[in-house]
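Feature request disguised as a bug: please show the residue count (250) next to DUF72 domain-containing protein in the output. Example input:
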Amino acid sequence: MILLGTSGWQYRDWRGRFYPDGLPQRLWLEHFAERFATVEVNNAFYRLPERDTFAAWRARTPDDFCVAVKMSRYLTHIKRLRDPAEPVYRFLDRASALGDRLGPVLLQLPPTLAADVPLLDATLRLFPPQVRVAVEPRHTSWWTAATRATLERHRAALVWADRLGRPVTPLWRTTDFGYLRLHEGRARPHPRYGRAALTSWVRRLADTFGDAPVYVYFNNDPGGAAIADAVAFAARCRRDGLQVSRVPAG
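Example output, currently without the count:
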């Protein structure tokens, strides 16, 4: 099952492209959740919402909706994974208000953070087993057997990341779900993805994960590129016989 969405939903340049001109912004989440079954929330990275905000997102979305949440930068970029207990506890205390809407927690590490497997291990062990965690390292020193073994031991997913139509991470499967982030394509208008790139990613996911769930988020939001690419990606999934969550009509 491919759970397909975008990284965020509150983009002003989506008005008129995805959101009707007369739709107030306070109703954009409801509009989005009728057309997609999942979203990745990035603003939690910059400012962790209060518990009431997470509870409101749960109340405003359908029963089958799933919210992946990006971990606060306080842990990943300021603390740089040191002393993780308090930041993880605070994050989970608030995000747990999503209840059954809570999807994976995304830990995106800074590109300047070189590999420190003991710090990663100490962080991952703080998450309860029912919470899915996806880790996106961005320094090449992380691509080692020790990193892979740590992710596997904690049943955390290595985030597969794409930029300009090519993988920028190893294509490891480390647990029973996958997580793919598509940051920027090479097609026109920029930053769209072309047919060949989307087809390649569909086939990689099918070959590696089979029937396991995979969360796929388009992070190329300018000009509504993420919406258009998600629709095209879903069409290619269906063409290859993969089950995919709802997307807007093409």
